[in-house]
Amino acid sequence: MFYFMPKMDISGHKFGLLTAIKIDDQRMSPHTYWICQCDCGNTCSVYLGNLRRGHTSSCGCVTKKLLSSSRMIHGHNIKHRVSSEYSTWVSMKSRCNNPNSTSYKLYGEKGVSVCKQWNDSFQCFFNDMGPKPTKNHSIDRYPDKNGNYEPGNCRWATDKEQNRNRSNTKWITYNNKQILIPDLAVLLNTTSSVIRNRIRRGQNIEQIIEYLDQITLP
Questions:
Q1: Which residues is 82 bridged to in the sheet?
Q2: How many CB atoms within 10 Å of residue 86?
Q3: Which residues, 6 or more positions from 150, have their beta carbon under 8 angstroms from its beta carbon?
Q4: Burial class (CB in 10 A: 0-12, 13-18, 19+), 88
Q5: What is the mean pLDDT of residues 62-74?
Q6: pLDDT at 76
Q7: Are 57 and 101 in contact (CB under 8 A)?
């Protein structure tokens, strides 16, 4: 037995390319679905939660258009499946350009943008970035983690490299250079936990090195 909650009226509201028309009363579901008119002319039934969160913003015509256009890009549409590089390009533009994207507030809303040549052309993006070394690589803004998506500030990175490049990653100064604690631990022949423990005790890098020298004396 279904228990229906009071339904909010969103008729006439716009969600991406979709305009809500009326509740889909043919759906026997505890969730609310709306009949929507897409800008392309099609109608579709969409779960209200997906509309409000920006998860659904068209009848599917956008995806079909991307698949169609990718057929002209050699090697990046095989049996109607776009390549990983092409999907990365689409996602990158969406989180920077589309206010309905769930990631927009972390990118576009904060001023992160895609350079014009990449935004306008997948081929330019692919020519600059090249193929992913492995399927586990993803695009990473580097060396400026707060910069834009553009040539010279992007790389294909592993999860480990991505984690090291996050804004909350701990950097310290060693020999007048910024270095990550794991890399410093390798240089000093110790572990990251030892360095972090000494930092928590209020020691600077010189004191840490002095401590390490003492514990390695014969």
A1: 77
A2: 21
A3: 114, 115, 118
A4: buried
A5: 57
A6: 60
A7: no
